[in-house]
């Protein structure tokens, strides 16, 4: 199916999830995850009206950026190796996977202005997933105050692959509660307003539980 057709269905689901939770649709940023698709398919997403593209590898970003450039707002959503920061920092608008001090240090060194970052949190505590434990997040954010070019705009998590809606909601609620606690601290370097959570199989639930940024790949642009 075309991205435009997929987007029409997804828009309906977003609208319903917003209605169910008393939210406005303009609170939701839809990111098309393009890691498994061609540059042409990514361009199709832009042509359908999607403004935000997600990549998870340096090579994928640079390849697509060469063709698409600033037509898109670029989100880095995969694990970012510190040694590769210098190659991507000029192209990306947001990093969704900050989870260690060495990465923050390199971002701070290479960036010419504050970079909006999400702290990746492993709420579900799965060994296969990256991210900080929930108990580590606040002290980590406090330690980031020394880096003037790192701005913590929110928290990100990946929920388990399960059909259990209550389990999924539980993960999203935990992240939201953690976000609320940090936001209420009033850190200047960490306003922590946003929640990056929800993928193709669970984005409607994520929206109902407070997601502001959803990351859709297979359901939107395909594999």
Automatic annotation (TrEMBL):
UniProtKB keywords = Pyridoxal phosphate
| Cofactor(s) in the UniProt record | pyridoxal 5'-phosphate
- Pfam families xrefs: Ala_racemase_N
Q: Which residues carry this modification: N6-(pyridoxal phosphate)lysine?
A: 35
Question: InterPro entries annotated for this entry?
Answer: Ala_racemase_N, PLP-binding_barrel, PyrdxlP_homeostasis
Q: Which residue numbers delimit the Alanine racemase N-terminal domain? A: 10-222
**GO molecular function of the protein, one example?**
pyridoxal phosphate binding
Q: Which family does it belong to?
A: Belongs to the pyridoxal phosphate-binding protein YggS/PROSC family.
**Function noted in UniProt:** Pyridoxal 5'-phosphate (PLP)-binding protein, which is involved in PLP homeostasis.
PANTHER family for the chain: PROLINE SYNTHETASE CO-TRANSCRIBED BACTERIAL HOMOLOG PROTEIN, PYRIDOXAL PHOSPHATE HOMEOSTASIS PROTEIN
The molecule here is called: Pyridoxal phosphate homeostasis protein
